[in-house]
Amino acid sequence: MFKKILIANRGEIARRVIRTCKKMGIASVAVYSEADKDAPFVRDADEGFLLGPPPVGESYLKQDRILDILKESGADALHPGYGLLSENAEFVNKVTNAGVTFIGPTPEVMNKMGDKSAARSFALSADVPVVPGSEGEIADEDAAVAFAENFGYPILVKAAAGGGGIGMKVATKEKKLRKAVTECQRRGQSAFGDPTIYLERYVENPRHIEIQVFGDSQGNAVHLFERECSVQRRHQKVIEETPSIFLNRFEDLRERMCAAAVRLVKQSNYTNAGTVEFIVSPEGEFYFIEMNTRLQVEHAISEETTGFDLVEWQIRIAAGEPLPVSQEEIQFKGHAIECRIYCEDPEHHFFPKPGTIGAYSEPQGEGIRVDSGVRENFEVVSYYDPMIAKVISQGDTRDQAIDRMLGALADFTIEGLTNNISMHQRVLQEEDFLNGNYDTGWLEALYKK
Ligand code: ADP
């Protein structure tokens, strides 16, 4: 087993990984920017190394500096968390070449899944349904228009390298399509250094439902059921729950989606944690949209309903151990919900509102877990993701999980910083949410009313 793990990330996920390191008796190394020097994750770690100034390009994305710290600290493994360098195959190669184990999948599979257009083709070859769309990339506006004339509107333009809802635009007619192509190529280039785009049918009123998967280096693959992530704004998740009560409405749908996800893991020789993301039409047709080759923000709800520590699984699998359990031993219990607490203003287009937290106190109680990256008098800066905490509630039933969440949100004190707690409280009491009648456009529509 590893002796020392460097966590190339910050905030709540760095703390989350450190927690499991402590449990397993593994030393932890934090790396941090000047803005984070007093952050809780730095205090939690056994050792800390300064990366540089606050902008991510000068700190958390500075590969050479992280490699130097790997050497200096003597860490024998690196956990990338999510975002930042977690899906960067070039970085994984550098870490491996330095003789350090990367806790995640191989760079080969990361490359395969990192290009969303190539991932679509791969999914098709594994007999996993994808959203109908262009086979491979679309060269330019004219090619897009020619494709759409046969295919029909509405159509979604997507940057192949896209992520986090960036580089995606819906077009309902030719003029809009031309604009969307230029815009997505530009966004792909500026945010990910790759202007490649492709086209997909825009599925109306879909649900976003994903399957947590794991593979080990012995060739075993399992799923840990689904997470429903349809409460979104700007194509990004804010509330997740498991199980999805929508899936209960269709016979076998859950089983078929889980089986498709496991097929993808097996056929790609996937190792470590991954998430296979699908959108599901109101009629219950499901389509692969992408695979995330890392731990997800919302992994905690799967931990609460299955009882496993997924970070521990990641570490053990990276160390060469087989999956600790078989598919049959993965039992699902109760219901779990996650509310992501962002410093953003739900009343004003969910705009991020960084600032300084005054008084701060987290809720506690039966079935409540809080994973956070902040503390009292902490300054949340604009350089990083505006998510400051996750509240996770678990109950025997969905109603109990919702009740517990409402209790926890009421007990959460975050003074001096605009945040979205009131939005969560509103959503959790909306009739549509209570009845499970929501899709990926539902939250934004609620706030336009
Ligand atoms: P990203 O990598 O940027 O997160 P995804 O491909 O995972 O992008 O899609 C993010 C969200 O965008 C989905 O959860 C869904 O709300 C919406 N979306 C993606 N593809 C489609 C589609 N073909 N039709 C309708 N909505 C889609």
Structural overview:
- With 449 residues, the chain is of the alpha+beta class.
- The chain folds into 3 domains: 4-103, Rossmann fold; 132-201, Dna Ligase, domain 1 (2-Layer Sandwich), CATH 3.30.1490; 207-446, ATP-grasp fold, B domain (D-amino Acid Aminotransferase, Chain A, domain 1, 2-Layer Sandwich).
- It is 34% helix and 27% strand.
- The strands form 6 sheets. Strands 13-12-9-10-11-14-21-19 form an 8-stranded antiparallel β-sheet, sandwiched between helices.
- The protein is globular.
- The termini are far apart.
- 50% of the residues are buried.
- The structure holds adenosine-5'-diphosphate.
- Adenosine-5'-diphosphate binds at residues 131, 156, 162-166, 168, 200-203, 206, 208, 232, 235, 277, 279, 289-290, 440.
- The site of adenosine-5'-diphosphate has 21 residues, from strand 6, strand 7, strand 8, strand 12 and strand 13.
Pick out its properties.
globular; D-amino Acid Aminotransferase, Chain A, domain 1; 3 domains; Dna Ligase, domain 1; Rossmann fold; binds adenosine-5'-diphosphate; 449 residues; alpha+beta; five-stranded parallel sheet
Short description:
The protein is an alpha+beta fold and 449 residues long. It has 15 helices and 22 strands.
Write the layout of secondary structure elements.
Blueprint: E1 4-7, H1 11-24, E2 27-33, H2 40-44, E3 47-52, H3 63-73, E4 77-79, H4 89-97, E5 101-102, H5 107-114, H6 116-125, H7 141-151, E6 155-163, E7 166-171, H8 174-192, E8 197-201, E9 207-215, E10 221-233, E11 236-242, H9 253-267, E12 272-280, E13 286-292, H10 299-306, H11 310-318, E14 335-342, E15 344-345, E16 351-352, E17 355-356, E18 360-361, E19 368-372, E20 379-380, E21 387-395, H12 398-411, E22 413-414, H13 421-427, H14 431-434, H15 442-448
Parallel strand pairs: 1-2, 1-4, 2-3, 4-5
Antiparallel strand pairs: 6-7, 6-8, 9-10, 9-12, 10-11, 11-14, 12-13, 14-21, 15-16, 17-20, 18-22, 19-21
Helix pairs in contact: 4-5, 7-8
The chain binds adenosine-5'-diphosphate (ADP).
Adenosine-5'-diphosphate binds next to strand 6, strand 7, strand 8, strand 12 and strand 13.
